[in-house]
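EI: anyone free to look at a 156-residue chain?
SC: sure, send it
EI:
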Amino acid sequence: VNRMISSGLQGVEFWAVNTDSQALVNSLAPNKCQIGEQVTRGLGAGGNPELGEIAATESRQELERAVLGADLVFITAGMGGGTGSGSAPVVAKMSREKGILTVGVVTYPFSFEGRRRIQQATEAIEALRANVDTLIVIPNDRLLDVVEEGTALQEA
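SC: here you go
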């Protein structure tokens, strides 16, 4: 989201949604929504997608306000951890129920991130796929093929 904002993309209302209050402080998004304050206490979902889902459900009213009046919602998230994996399908379902064209753009973990994270990502992607009009999945491993050697991971 920060890269899209920094690129000067116009005509878009950016929202950062996270369970981690510190991540929101570091976001350039003009609109921020901390989800799951009761369940996570602002400390993130700890890699637990169930906690991410509970957090999104807990904050449903705030999320509904965020998409109010939208014609199109893009949901960007990293899959495999807690907040993105758990909350993205909830936000997508809510958006589609409101008749909003909903597109998911997510990343799939690097193969070296381990089986647990990959399994969580796979399950989250299937849950998201069932609730979006279009889904784009970007495998992080593919980034290693298309960037020059020595490029910082954040820049890839």
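EI: Helices lie at 2-6, 21-25, 37-40, 49-58, 60-67, 83-97, 115-129, 140-146.
SC: 👍
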